[in-house]
């Protein structure tokens, strides 16, 4: 199999993974807004967001380094000479780590609190957790946008 074919296949899989993993993230603000209007029950919406992040965003997002490495190998890129790619990799690593370590546990806790409150449990003061989750979502969304821009524009040189 030629390097060019490996690159084309890896690029296709990389783009599909990006769409599958990060596309749903852009819908979360709509879901959250629906919570405010009462259009969607809070426990169901928060649990749906948690499941999408846990079972789609993170697992599919974690496949992207494999296709990325395959593209680097196929194009024989010198990573140290591609600042745009190093920047995108750093943004990706920080974002995926944040999603796993901070965002997913925060959303899971909010979902548990909402479910417990719906069952007659005590509603806890969760405003700091809500705020952290909201800001985390903004950070992750902006990271995705920045990574996409770096991949498309490739400032400093095309590969």
Quick check: average pLDDT?
88
| Count of discrete alpha- or pi-helical segments spanning 4 or more residues | 6
**What summary fits the major beta sheet?**
none
State the total count of DSSP E strands: 0
Query: Secondary-structure element sequence?
Result: HHHHHH
Helix content: over 70%
Going by helix content, strand content and strand pairing, the class is mainly alpha
What is the 3D form? elongated
Estimate the strand proportion: under 5%
Question: Any low-confidence stretches, pLDDT <50, length ≥5?
Answer: none
Number of separate structural domains:
1
Could you tell me how far the N terminus lies from the C terminus, measured between alpha carbons in angstroms? 21 Å
Q: Determine Rg (CA atoms, Å).
A: 19 Å
Give an overview in words.
Helix content is 79%, strand content 0%. The chain has helices spanning 3-22, 28-37, 42-61, 64-75, 83-118, 127-153. Helix 1 (3-22) packs antiparallel against helix 4 and helix 3 packs antiparallel against helix 5. The protein is elongated, with a radius of gyration of 19 Å. The relative contact order is 0.14.
Q: Which structural traits does this protein have?
A:
159 residues; mainly alpha; 79% helix
């Amino acid at each position: 199999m030629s390097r060019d074919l490996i690159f084309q296949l890896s690029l296709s899989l990389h783009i599909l993974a990006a769409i599958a993993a990060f596309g749903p993230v852009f819908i979360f603000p709509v879901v959250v807004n629906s919570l405010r209007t009462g259009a969607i029950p809070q426990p169901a919406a928060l649990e749906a967001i948690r499941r999408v992040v846990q079972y789609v965003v993170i697992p599919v997002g974690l496949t992207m380094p494999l296709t990325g490495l395959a593209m680097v190998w196929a194009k024989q890129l010198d990573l140290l000479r591609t600042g745009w790619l190093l920047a995108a990799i750093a943004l990706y690593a920080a974002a995926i780590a944040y999603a796993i370590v901070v965002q997913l546990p925060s959303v899971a806790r909010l979902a548990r609190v909402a479910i417990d409150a719906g069952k007659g449990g005590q509603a806890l003061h969760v405003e700091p957790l809500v705020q952290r989750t909201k800001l985390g979502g903004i950070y992750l969304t902006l990271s995705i946008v920045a990574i996409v821009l770096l991949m498309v524009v490739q400032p400093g040189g095309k590969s």
